[in-house]
Design brief:
single chain; alpha+beta; five-stranded antiparallel β-sheet; 39% strand
Length: 257
């Protein structure tokens, strides 16, 4: 049986545009992938809070690292004097049982106890840090009295507290930067900033306000964006793509000038 004219016409039409449709599909796919790479959102990984809060004698500060309305740590400045016996200390206290402070050993009057470490900028704060179960009263950052008692490392320095705390049952790491000065056994601490890593279990660098995953794709967005090929040009197949590429070359030349 002979094929009808309509059948032959459809078959001939399919053969004539088959190659062009393949070219169109490849070009459209490449353009779609490129656009997707540009619009992918960058999820913030480190949340940084700038601060300028002074903690003076017998004052406390409730440190809420993730701003959920619940204090994660408390900074406490203590000073007392009685019949010529004077002394003061600066302490950090976790507010939840699972929260801990990076600790360091300090020897005082022959007794070894844990104090809050004064970490330098750039220290890596993570699961391998020296986090220890804390005393009920917290860890001493620095303390001294008129009798020569002296403990801790936070004397006239700007350093970082290494912090481990829990958000919804998951462990996160953070830091708090304090400038501490002492005069006549009286401590004054200025909290200048703090930050935490939003990904559970991921370490954070002391002083880091953003991580490598936080950078915006500015370099890719500032470069010349190719003009999308039109459906008509793509439908023409190879000749249409040649015209489109010549337009792109001319646009690039103008941009270079």
């Amino acid at each position: 049986m002979k094929a009808s004219p309509l059948t032959r016409q459809i078959a001939n039409l399919s053969e004539s545009i088959h190659h062009r449709l393949n070219v169109y599909a490849l070009a459209a796919s490449a353009a779609g992938v490129g656009a997707l790479a540009l619009v992918q959102p960058c999820e913030a990984k480190i949340i940084y809070t700038k601060a300028d809060h002074i903690i003076g004698a017998n004052q406390t500060y409730r440190l809420d690292l993730n701003h959920d309305g619940i204090a994660d740590f408390v900074l406490k400045d203590f000073f007392a004097t009685n019949s010529g016996d004077s002394g003061g200390s600066l302490n950090v206290l976790p507010k939840r049982s699972a929260n801990e402070v990076w600790a360091a050993q300090h020897c005082t009057s022959g007794t070894v106890r844990l104090c809050a470490a004064a970490l330098p900028k750039g220290a890596k704060i993570g699961s391998k840090g020296s986090f220890r179960p804390d005393y009920p009263a917290g860890e001493v950052m620095a303390g001294s009295d008129i009798h020569g008692y002296r403990t801790g490392a936070w004397f006239n320095v700007t350093r970082y507290l290494g912090l481990k705390f829990v958000i919804k049952g998951k462990t996160h790491f953070g830091w708090a930067r304090l400038a501490v000065s002492v005069q006549h056994f009286t401590f004054t601490a200025t909290l200048t900033g703090y930050a935490y890593e939003t990904i559970p279990g991921k370490p954070i660098i002391a002083g880091a306000t953003k991580g490598p995953d936080d950078a915006e794709p500015t370099a890719a967005l500032s470069s010349h964006t190719p003009e999308p090929a039109t459906l008509g040009a793509l439908a023409l197949g190879a000749p249409g793509l040649s015209i489109w590429r010549r337009k792109e070359s001319a646009a690039d030349a103008l941009a270079a000038n």
